[in-house]
Write a structure and sequence with these properties.
three-stranded antiparallel beta sheet; Rossmann fold; single chain; binds 1-O-pyrophosphono-5-O-phosphono-alpha-D-ribofuranose; alpha/beta; binds orotic acid
Length: 199
């Protein structure tokens, strides 16, 4: 497929579906990756985490932070490879979907002191519209940390690239895949009365 660039072994990890999906960020999109079994074989992920760690290392970060669940699993492996601190963010319990980028994440209180003043790479398994990494970024800043790099196994579309450029930090990944995102009001699939697929 001409729109895919990936390190060897990465494509096989993802079950790629095309259709009409409602996403974590509140957008609608035409691409869905099944991520539930991504961490089934820890050694397979460890090899990819090793390569991602190698690419993040030049950023000179003190810690890696990922959003639960998948992003945090990966962040822990990358932190282990670099022998630096691992942190995680979790979705706010009362964070309801509604509008774009409406989901909030928090960092557990027990981690706040360790994060203060640290340069942190925000790592997710897959970045699509970027709602989880944006919310994690905000939560890190609230702890006095300095988000300094973004990383992912796979980046979908261009939202992550734009966000990294706006923030002036590197975006590191092992693969990229084109996709389309729309606000629900502008979704051409909704306009064509295509029903939402289950996720
Ligand atoms: O770029 P985004 O708009 O944030 O979309 C990608 C996010 O969606 C998935 O997480 P999900 O919300 O399914 O949570 P999970 O990791 O707990 O499965 C994935 O693991 C990313 O964190
Ligand atoms: O954007 C998302 O929320 C999302 C996209 C995707 O492909 N898979 C997933 O689990 N979430």
């Amino acid at each position: 497929m001409s729109d895919i660039e990936m390190v060897p072994g990465l494509a096989a990890l993802f079950d790629i579906r095309r259709g009409h999906f409602e996403l974590e960020s509140g957008h609608h999109g035409d691409l869905w990756l099944e991520l539930g079994a991504l961490f089934l074989h820890p050694r397979r992920i460890a090899r990819l985490a090793q390569e991602l760690a190698r690419r993040i290392a030049p950023s000179g970060v003190d810690a890696i932070c990922g959003p639960l669940e998948g992003g945090a699993f990966l962040a822990q492996s990358v932190a282990s490879e670099l022998d630096i601190e691992f942190h995680y963010s979790e979705r706010e319990k009362h964070s309801e979907r509604g509008g774009l980028y409406s989901v909030a994440y928090r960092i557990p209180r027990a981690l706040h002191a360790a994060l203060s003043g640290k340069r942190v790479a925000v790592v997710d398994d897959v970045i699509n519209a970027g709602s989880a990494i944006r919310a994690t970024w905000t939560a890190l800043e609230a702890c006095g940390a300095k988000p300094s790099a973004l990383g992912a196994l796979l980046v979908l579309g261009s939202a992550a690239e734009h966000y990294a450029r706006d923030k002036g930090v590197p975006l590191v990944s092992l693969g990229a895949l084109t996709n389309s995102l729309w606000s629900p009001a502008e979704c051409p699939l909704c306009k064509a009365a295509v029903p939402l697929d289950p996720t």
